[in-house]
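Need tokens for this chain, all 238 residues.
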Amino acid sequence: MKTIGLIGGMSWESTAVYYQLINEAMRERLGGLHSGEIVLRSLDFDAVVRLQTEGRWDAAADMLASAGEGLVKAGAECVLICTNTMHLVSAPVAERAGVPLIDIIDETAEALKRAGIVRPLLLATRYTMEHGFYAERMKRHGITVSTPDEKGRQRIHDVIFDELCQGRIDAQSRSDVLGLVDDAVRGGADGVILGCTEISLLIDPDALPVKGFDSTRIHADAAVAFALAGAPQMESAA
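Here are the structure tokens for all 238 residues:
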């Protein structure tokens, strides 16, 4: 089993989900008392958010790249940035880590392609929906993402930061987000990307009018696949 390195804390609410999903998958695949070999660096999200709001993406890149370097020194054999938004700075993080960076956008795109989805709705922070890096990466895979209108983008951004990242689950917010999904489906969306690692706390991807894709679970599963590549699975573990 290879050691998984997690750059987390953005927010810790979703990082806790990563830890749970990875270890559940390890137990399912290996059986018994198995769990993952994981190294976690959990950042202070407030410091990250200040850099985001100030547009200081170079400083944010340096912060995450330093965290990635620390994970590798601690034994990590791959690195995950446990948030969609901060994949805006994934290139310098990958370069400085010197080990594989498992990219949440690429992994989600592969899941979309396997399902034949080409026009998904993206639900995420305004940074992810508006900065272009996510849509451009998806376009390389032949996928064209759509987003809600400006009012809808602001609504979901506020739900993420003011509620989900602070552990609040609000029924009205769930209704509002599902309304955005319904609008997109009427406009031709053939799938929905939960493109913020906290959104799965609010929305069940399996209870949508079109197929939903939980980027947190997809990313965690990719980490487990990397860690267990070539390792015996439960059938032979006994």
